[in-house]
């Protein structure tokens, strides 16, 4: 599996890794920073990670996915640092013999990543900034 | 005992690494949370606050050992 | 929407098209030719399309997807001609504000494409060849 | 009336465009299918066989007009 934190997301790197002659299906999810959040214009974002734990938790998710589905390969790549709206910040990719597994595992991985992987997003607006999800 | 801080907990405390004095008598995750709420009332306003030990999520009853890597995990927002 | 038949699938073209600042999620499905089918080694494949009708039917599917989900952009690109095992032959991509829509629409489009779009695959083995699905 | 052929129907007939003689009296999709089954018994072995008129799937009762683009659609296998 390919699991890492990077400055810049490279979709081709993920696809090149996932490609395999025995895999008939590849599902890729790319999460990008939207330019609006709760009605306010987002001018910049900053992603901070607890690197070692983020990798560890992504490895746990990968292991769970390999146990739940019959997969060929799996990639989880998350960006850190300052990002402009529109920039890809996460790519999750799964290859499998048949498409059910790649769709389901990819969805599982992004859903769980958002719950458990220690990465934090700070949104900057024109007049202030906020750590997303920090407050109810 | 040293505690790694990220995101909003780093901003609340104004530091990226917090030292819990030995005389605070903190031995469990639960005790650490209680101590933090007293020292930094703003922590109580967070949606959630988890504690990680050696890169794994810890439970309230888990014992904290100063030799382990301990960190506060405020609500995550990756992806 | 970007709908076409091509000689060679270009994942970057699809992603570049789907990218939009108001889209927070992009789901991409890449279907590749496996090197085995029903236990036999596939040495080559040939894809034939009824071009005009294939485009028309893909347009129908795109329209249905836009009606069912709130989507930003959508791409359906299918390859035709002789292909080696491992080659991508179809890419479907959907961008949306939130990920539910992109995952669901992408899955819908590939499932429906396989049922209704007039494209035919011939598999060549060492000793013979077969039009896939032609016979019960 | 001319019929476009693809995939296995092209192989069964040995041609990519079939001419249905006017004296065959074919006026509907259903009649065309019956005629094809008689002319090319191998067509009956297919999993399915649809007819398209002007790039849309047609129903058995639809009337065939020689001015339209008519095609046979054997079981598809794209993706």
Describe this structure in words.
The complex is a heterotetramer, with two copies of chain A (136 residues) and two copies of chain B (79 residues). Helices cover 32% and strands 38% of the residues of chain A. Chain A has 136 residues and is of the alpha+beta class. Chain A has a single domain, classed as Aldehyde Oxidoreductase, domain 3. In chain A, strand 9 (119-124) and strand 10 (129-131) form a beta hairpin. The termini of chain A are far apart. The mean pLDDT of chain A is 95. With 79 residues, chain B is an alpha+beta fold. Chain B has one domain (2-73): Ubiquitin-like (UB roll) (Roll), CATH 3.10.20. Chain B has helices at residues 7-13, 29-39, and strands at 2-4, 17-19, 50-53, 56-57, 70-73. Chain B has a five-stranded mixed β-sheet with strand order 2-1-5-3-4. Chains in contact: A-B, A-C, C-D. Chains A and C meet through helix 1, strand 2 and helix 3 of A and helix 1, strand 2 and helix 3 of C. Strand 2 of chain A pairs antiparallel with strand 2 (25-32) of chain C, so a sheet runs across the interface.
């Amino acid at each position: 599996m390919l699991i890492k934190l990077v400055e810049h997301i490279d979709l081709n790197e993920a696809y090149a890794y996932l490609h395999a002659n025995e895999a008939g299906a590849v599902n890729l999810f790319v999460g990008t920073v939207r330019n609006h959040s709760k009605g306010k214009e987002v001018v910049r974002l900053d992603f901070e990670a607890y690197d070692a734990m983020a990798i560890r938790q992504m490895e746990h998710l990968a292991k769970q996915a390999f146990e739940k589905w019959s997969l060929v390969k799996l990639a989880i790549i998350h960006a850190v640092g300052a990002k402009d709206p529109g920039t890809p910040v996460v790519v999750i990719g799964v290859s499998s013999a048949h498409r059910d597994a790649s769709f389901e595992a990819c969805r599982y991985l992004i859903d769980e990543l958002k719950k458990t992987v220690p990465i934090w997003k700070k949104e900057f607006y024109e007049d202030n900034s906020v750590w997303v999800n920090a407050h109810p | 005992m040293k505690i790694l801080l990220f995101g909003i907990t780093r901003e609340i405390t104004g530091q990226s690494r917090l030292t819990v004095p030995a005389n605070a008598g903190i031995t469990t995750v639960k005790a650490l949370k209680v101590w933090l709420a007293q020292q930094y009332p703003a922590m109580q306003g967070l949606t959630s606050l988890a504690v990680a030990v050696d890169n794994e999520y810890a439970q309230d009853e888990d014992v904290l050992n100063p030799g382990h890597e301990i960190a506060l995990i405020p609500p995550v927002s990756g992806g």
